[in-house]
Amino acid sequence: MAARSLLLKLHDRGWIALPAKRRASPNRMHHKRVARVDHATEPIHAPLGELLPLEIHELSRYPHEQPLFECLLHRYHYLSHTSSVGLNLKYMIYDRGERPVACLLFGSAAWKCAVRDQFIGWSAPERERALQQITNNTRCLVLPWVDVRELASHVLSRVVRQLRADWHRKYARPLHLVETFVDRSRFVGSGYRAANWIDLGQTRGRTRQDRLNQIQVSPKRVLVYPLSADFRAALRS
Fold first, then answer.
1. Is-contact 95 115, C-beta < 8 A?
2. Which of 3, 58, 75, 111 is the most buried (most CB within 10 A)?
3. Rounded to an integer, what distance in angstroms lies between the CA atom of residue 139 and that of residue 180?
4. Is residue 197 a contact partner of residue 214, using CB atoms and an 8 Å limit?
5. What residues have CB less than 8 Å from 113, skipping those under 6 apart?
6. pTM for this prediction
7. Confidence of residue 5 (pLDDT cuts 50, 70, 90)
8. Which helix H or strand E contains 129, and what residues bound it?
9. Model confidence over 190-230: pLDDT tens digits?
10. Boundaries of every domain in the chain
11. From CA 23, how far away is CA 158, in angstroms rounded?
């Protein structure tokens, strides 16, 4: 798919000429539609203590909940969501009354990020070798009808405590660091900071496809959470 995507981009820019398509793309992700799943939207406005204890479902153990997860992210997250590729963990969060209150998605880490790479202190070969020992919190959604102070930080704290074990159980691989990128034009990242994530600074406003230094996107704050005391040594070994 990476090679095919590159060829299509070169064709679109007029640098090569590809033959005409003989059939539609077989890529199921391109055509996937997210099904609507009925769900309650009654306002939840209460102190956090009235919702505890929360139930945290990692969806490889609760696959029947995945349609609801995808529906909620698709409809209510500002980036939307259609499907996940690569290594990932999905979490549905319920209050003690079994009402869904939040969704979290963890996926592939950013290929390069200057402030993160400086924080770890690794070389390019070390990064290539160990990148899959980092995961990116690509979606964090508290549902829009849920107005509960400190819920986001509580959910983040609970999930990161089990993230490493869940990753190893699903993939039999180690996990040493989790990262996220916060769009400061929309959010301040207070939930992450309250959950003791480390603010490393700001991205340069480029994307991983920006090979010619021409693509400009909104800079984002980079926050990380170490999952092991020796994370630097593990990621550089």
1. no
2. 58
3. 9
4. no
5. 179, 203, 222
6. 0.83
7. confident
8. helix 124-130
9. 999 999 999 999 997 655 444 555 556 778 999 999 999 99
10. 46-236
11. 47
The SS3 assignment for 158 reads helix
234, two tokens: 């593990």
The answer to whether 153 touches 194, Cβ cutoff 8 Å, is: yes
Query: Rounded to whole angstroms, how far apart are CA atoms 229 and 191?
Result: 22
Residues in the chain: 237
Over residues 104-136, the pLDDT tens digits come to: 999 999 999 999 999 999 999 999 999 999 999
Q: With beta carbons less than 8 A apart as the criterion, state whether 205 and 161 touch.
A: no
- Average pLDDT on 79-96 reads 92
Express the helix, strand and coil content of the chain in percent, nearest 5 each: 35, 20, 45
DSSP H or E stretch at residue 104? strand 100-108
> What tokens appear for 202 in the block?
């700001």
Q: Which residue has the tokens 């990242």?
A: 189
96 phi, psi to nearest 5 deg: -70, -15
Token pair for 192: 């992450």
DSSP state of 148: -
Q: Which fold has domain 46-236?
A: Aminopeptidase (3.40.630)
Residues 223 and 182: their CA atoms lie apart, in Å, by 8
